[in-house]
Amino acid sequence: MFKHVEPFPGDPILTLNEQFGADPRPNKVNLSIGVYLNDAGKMPAMRAVLAAETALAADLGTRPYLPMEGNAAYRKAVGALTFGDAVPAERIAVAQTLGGSGALKVGGDFIARYFPQATVWVSDPTWDNHHSIFMGCGLKVKKYRYFDAATGLVDFMGMLSALEAMPAGDVVLLHACCHNPTGADLDAQQWREVAALVKRRGLLPFFDMAYQGFGKGVDEDAFPIRHFAAEGIPLFTATSFSKNFSLYGERCGSLSVVCADAQQADNVLGQLKATIRRNYSNPPTHGARIIARVLGDDALCADWRAELEGMRLRVATMRQNLYAALRDRMPDGNFEYLVRQTGMFSYTGLTPEEVASMRAESAVYLVGSGRLCIAALTDATIAPTADAMARVLK
Ligand code: PMP
């Protein structure tokens, strides 16, 4: 029966991670997968998360199914965290989802049903799974100009002319902050220009915010979403709490849709529920209970924000330190991009061959595209990473 089923080649990033696990070299450095590690090279368990979980453990109760749209307290808190007071809550349909990936999938299914003619435009490059998820929803996916390899920053003029040429009603996927894989973000003024263009051209923005708090700060990173919403632009937002709560495996995310009025938001939420029912019926309980408790308690929320700010600053320090280490080794090299990009990743411009050589000769693992996870660097791994990069670049 299954003779025609071809082998799965594996996900490029997850496969690299498996290779890293099997690599016997003791000095190996994994900068491929997108996770935040602390100074000790460990994935943190955040203080507020542990406190909330300990309190919950004393009062677990039963575990009935959640409603299709998820935990009500979680949905309310997530709406407030994402939108601040940019738009009244009754105009936003918020559904709890299985991580940010689940939000993209539920949003993609909704678009395929209600905007079947729309093409989804994603930045070139983008997180590979954007292509797979939206194509899996039966949608057409195309790329828009985004990255300028010469500067390591956004090709803003190229992006504007690409947006200008998109047919009205098409969906444009925008990384709210900490662009994955490049680390190249728009500034506030550029976001205002994009918002004006999107509004004038009648495009439908779909924000992906997987790294809130790792760019400029929790509220600063939500600026584009809040600005678009305040401008009266209907939009989708996929939020992930995998990184900023360090709760990867709990699969916590949400899909928010900003609508023109409360009636539309009600209808949209109803159809999101129908989409969720068709996919997996309802989301899991545990992670949402933790996050609702942290965000709903002033002291826990303040502690979460403080710890996240520390994580953000640690990543910024790692950027500076890698930059300095590379300048020491190659004073004529151009590594400015490292300190001008933001978030957990940098696009180094290293070729697939150079990346392969770093892996083979130095046991330093980057993604083949040249993406380096700054958030996985530690004081101990800066020097070997800089050595490996300098060796292939010299
Ligand atoms: N969007 C982007 C840009 C991401 O980088 C990721 C995670 N790597 C996701 C969405 C998915 O997040 P999650 O792991 O919560 O599904």
TrEMBL record:
Say if the entry is tagged with keyword Transferase.
yes
Q: Where is the Aminotransferase class I/classII large domain?
A: 27-387
Its cofactor is: pyridoxal 5'-phosphate
- Which Gene Ontology cellular-component terms appear in the entry? cytosol
Which GO terms of the molecular function aspect are on file? identical protein binding; L-tyrosine-2-oxoglutarate transaminase activity; pyridoxal phosphate binding
Q: Which residues cross the membrane?
A: none
> Is Kinase set as a keyword in this record?
no
* Keywords for the protein's UniProt record, in alphabetical order: Aminotransferase, Pyridoxal phosphate, Transferase
Under NCBIfam families, the record lists: PRK09257.1 (NF006719)
Which family is it part of?
Answer: Belongs to the class-I pyridoxal-phosphate-dependent aminotransferase family.
Please state what the protein is called. Aminotransferase class I/II-fold pyridoxal phosphate-dependent enzyme
- Source organism: Pseudoduganella rivuli
